[in-house]
Amino acid sequence: MSIQDNIHAILEKVAAAAKDAGRDPESIKLVAVTKTVDAQTAKEVMDAGCTTLGENRVQSFLEKYEVLGDAPDWHIIGHLQTNKVKYIVGKVSLIHSVDSLHLAEEISKKATALGITQDILLQFNISGEESKSGASEDEAESLLAAVSALSGIRVCGLMTMAPLDADEEETRAVFKGLRSLFEKLKEKNYPGVALTELSMGMSNDFELAVKEGATLIRIGRSLFR
Ligand SMILES: *Cc1c(COP(=O)(O)O)cnc(C)c1O
């Protein structure tokens, strides 16, 4: 199937899952994860109508940025090292994977120097799997309070990943967990924080994520088969 056919098939499934959950399909955005393909193929994704592209590694992002520039709406979705922050701030519209105050401080420093505001999501490890990155739920309130006090950075929502080998029930519990953390944090009304985005769901579990309230789904493999 072509990339266009694949996007179409995914959007149909999103619409069906949204309908099931009584949600507006327009409230869910597809982030095309282009980490496994080259810039030319990423361009084909854009031409097929999906202009939000997600990269998990800074190096891979920079290679494509050199070719495609600001034409796509770039998202960084993978674990980010503080020493790489300087290469991406100002070039990407959203960083999904902020999981420590230290990392947020680095982003704040760079954004402030550029005179811009960088939008970010806080990533949480809801499943508690040791191999997964993400902050723990226990530190959510203190982390959000500290990050929201930094200049040049705006927390727009939360992100998580379900364990790859999880069954449906376990996956759903992870998404439900992020959703309830999101609701809890929203009630706190931290100054300057408007939590609107829930980034969850990949090729194998995006329909469940949509049913549990995802606003950003990160899809790679299903686009390129
Ligand atoms: C690769 C990746 C995805 C996309 O996964 P697929 O299974 O290819 O859809 C989503 N989120 C993150 C953080 C990733 O690294």
What is the topology?
Elements: H1 3-20, E1 29-33, H2 39-47, E2 52-55, H3 58-68, E3 73-76, H4 85-88, E4 94-98, H5 101-114, E5 118-123, H6 140-148, E6 153-159, H7 168-187, E7 197-199, H8 206-211, E8 216-219
Parallel strand pairs: 1-2, 1-8, 2-3, 3-4, 4-5, 5-6, 6-7
The chain binds pyridoxal-5'-phosphate.
Summarize the entry for a quick read.
With 225 residues, this protein is α/β, with parallel strands linked by helices.
Record keyword descriptors for this entry:
single chain; 225 residues; eight-stranded parallel sheet; 8 helices; binds pyridoxal-5'-phosphate
How would you explain this protein's 3D organization?
This protein has helices at residues 3-20, 39-47, 58-68, 85-88, 101-114, 140-148, 168-187, 206-211; strands at 29-33, 52-55, 73-76, 94-98, 118-123, 153-159, 197-199, 216-219. With 225 residues, it is α/β, with parallel strands linked by helices. An eight-stranded parallel beta sheet has the order 7-6-5-4-3-2-1-8. The chain is globular. The mean pLDDT is 97. The chain binds pyridoxal-5'-phosphate (PLP).
